Amino acid sequence: MSSQPVSAPDSATAEPLTIMGAGLVGSLLSLFLARRGHQVDVYERRADMRRGGAVEGRSINLALSDRGWRALEAVGIGDEIRQVAIPMYRRVMHDVHGNLSFQPYGKDNQAIYSVSRAGLNRTLLTLAEAEPRIRLHFNQQLTSLDPRHRRLELRDTVTGQEQELAFRRLFGTDGAFSAVRSALQKTERYNYSQSYLDYGYKELNIEPGPDGEWLLEKNALHIWPRGQYMMIALPNLDGSFNCTLFFPYEGKHSFASLQTPAQVQAFFEEIFPDVVPLMPELTDEYFRNPTGSLVTIRCFPWAFDDDVLLLGDASHAIVPFYGQGMNAGFEDCTVLNELMEQLGDDWPAIFSQFQQQRKPNADAMAELAVYNFEEMRDRVGDPRFLLQKKIESKISAQYPDQWTPLYSQVTFSHTPYAEAWQSGREQEQIMSRLMSHIQTETDYDRPEVQALVAQEMAARS
Amino acid sequence: MSSQPVSAPDSATAEPLTIMGAGLVGSLLSLFLARRGHQVDVYERRADMRRGGAVEGRSINLALSDRGWRALEAVGIGDEIRQVAIPMYRRVMHDVHGNLSFQPYGKDNQAIYSVSRAGLNRTLLTLAEAEPRIRLHFNQQLTSLDPRHRRLELRDTVTGQEQELAFRRLFGTDGAFSAVRSALQKTERYNYSQSYLDYGYKELNIEPGPDGEWLLEKNALHIWPRGQYMMIALPNLDGSFNCTLFFPYEGKHSFASLQTPAQVQAFFEEIFPDVVPLMPELTDEYFRNPTGSLVTIRCFPWAFDDDVLLLGDASHAIVPFYGQGMNAGFEDCTVLNELMEQLGDDWPAIFSQFQQQRKPNADAMAELAVYNFEEMRDRVGDPRFLLQKKIESKISAQYPDQWTPLYSQVTFSHTPYAEAWQSGREQEQIMSRLMSHIQTETDYDRPEVQALVAQEMAARS
């Protein structure tokens, strides 16, 4: 894992910077910028999450992978986060009878890591607060932004007090419903789209065992694939699992069709029988927890001259099915840091190259995220699909220079997302040609299959 | 041309309706609704355009084709409009030396019609005003809309007076920057996109001759195709032509690169030499007229329950290159009228079927409009392309049941846009196979080419 160290430039060239939003990307970005010598003011609409209270309406845990680790290591907290992250080495699929099947995520030691969103954010905030160049301002809601004159207005959500501020350079890291982006949307010829899936999600909980032990395999991401919908579970440190049901809003099996506790109970007993005993609070949680929506946001430009720049979900919110939302936002920070390293204080070039470089990758990741939903809810329950994945890892082991599975390129590499997606589509075509000659795992070693594989690989090198 | 007559239903079932926006689609819609027995209130932000003053920022003339005619005939003003419409039977292409080439739009008598936007709108308003069931309210800006409680607020732009109104059913026909749609965009899980081309447009004028005669061929749409950009001209009744330059915002030849009258003059003399003598006001107009932008708007749903419905540009603004923006909006009225005819006062079904039926067609038309830009600015200058069009009309004449050119399906039929687009793509593939055997127009009659054509047609029937 090659990590880009953050070095402090000549502080004479460093200038004060403003960040709107102290979520995962904003707090990480503040560290990158401060360590380059900049004075950074960070404004956050919500209260300081370290003073208690959960973060409403967001997933409880996240899957951290290589792109995210690289950014955390660059600001020096890789080891600290590793202490509280749970590696998940494979998918464990649960069928309607409770039978399990398995699919490793990568090679032997490759894993994605279950981390607490709130825990990670708190750690980043504490680190930022310890940095003399960073000032954090909570309960500050952006009520107005004039990018052309570089002025913004904030309202203190506790005291109601309003203030107007001038800024020189503003980074918008205020998430999928970004107020900074809303102001850019009012500029001329702004390209924007928000696209919702017909699916929502509901968070549920699997309790720990009596001694705090994990009641499902700990080091795995669990999936209950059911064709048109699915449930997943990620492990927490306390022995519990956080489950998420991804479910249509309307239709025969849908949020609309489950209206009473008895209906929910009966549905889970029929469709997810093995988890029902592990969810004593099932019906209470189902009706207490909100139903979340799943949006993809695309926009362009991300920059307004060299004055305002969007990063993270503010510019490219995606659906959660590839576990790359946070990782993509963290990679934004890495890429921005590299450009600052190369281009010094040429901010027009930094902002321009950043958006030119990142936009196609963000678009590719948005498509990949929707693609993986189909794979997870539907294809991972199919023995032919699992066989194909096994064959693919054999090819990758035999021809490591010609073949890296798409999932590994996205998750365990820093290959730009757009390249990964292109390569993944080519590989999928090759696999569909090869799989017509393969019925079992051992078929892979048959001379005629080996010849076909060799021929395909020769065409790739 | 099969036109759906508007018949008045039992007036006991008719209910008062509200329309926001008295542009082309809103004023036409009011006629359809009133003739079905409804009391209709129409609110328009701008002043009554019949009291003088041009409509700012919109094209001066439009190409009316079969879908538009059908709707106008249904409200009984086909003949009246035909008096002031100029048929355009073909494209006339002007090359950089002023040489001309030609491409008919369809069969012998098929034409698209140049009509004045303002003139057509005025006629529709006068017709609406004569209708006892319609009340027109001008200078009424929608400042707030609550679809859930069916209330809206209007501000009189002249007196400043504000009023709050309840409505039972609201039709949003307030154009690409619809205020009605803005309110729907704030409802949950609303899908929305606005996408701009990197091109703008500039309106210019070709003067009539000394005796009011047309200085270019009157009954044609003129195109100056120049690869990455183009100019077009449509005839007006007074002998003038309205020209539109479609031009990149940035780049070597672009709005950004032409900054002085001398630069504009030199550019036109080099690139459009044959029109320069016909444009005595060229540089004045170029700097006086605004540069318009080219946006595609997509959204869904178009209906909020059975309370609010978007039609026309409010739900599907498209770029102008297929001449279908107004025609598509008028077809919305035809389709809505047919559904009212079939479904009576079952408004939930009317709204729901309307959006289900029209949305895929609006999406297809949006794609077609961008596709035709490429054809007009680039391909119509290519002799191979013109040859292909000639061959295509021969095929269509020989096999009328198997083949209707895409342009004719869009322009001279009522085939749903999505079907036309699908069929057009299939035909394009066939043409590319056939054209590899065809070098000249007479090649079409060669036995081996005839055999290939017959074979392709057999596969289509």
Automatic annotation (TrEMBL), chains A, B:
Main EC class the enzyme belongs to: oxidoreductase
Gene Ontology terms: biological process: anthranilate metabolic process; kynurenine metabolic process; L-tryptophan catabolic process; NAD+ biosynthetic process; quinolinate biosynthetic process
Entry keywords, A to Z: FAD, Flavoprotein, Monooxygenase, NADP, Oxidoreductase, Pyridine nucleotide biosynthesis
Transmembrane segments: none
Catalytic function, reaction form: L-kynurenine + NADPH + O2 + H(+) = 3-hydroxy-L-kynurenine + NADP(+) + H2O
FAD-binding domain residues: 18-367
Cofactor: FAD
Domain of life: Bacteria
SUPFAM superfamilies: FAD/NAD(P)-binding domain
Pathway: Cofactor biosynthesis; NAD(+) biosynthesis; quinolinate from L-kynurenine: step 1/3
A GO MF term: FAD binding
The enzyme's E.C. designation: 1.14.13.9
Family (UniProt): Belongs to the aromatic-ring hydroxylase family. KMO subfamily.
UniProt function note: Catalyzes the hydroxylation of L-kynurenine (L-Kyn) to form 3-hydroxy-L-kynurenine (L-3OHKyn). Required for synthesis of quinolinic acid.
Protein name: Kynurenine 3-monooxygenase
Gene this chain is encoded by: kmo
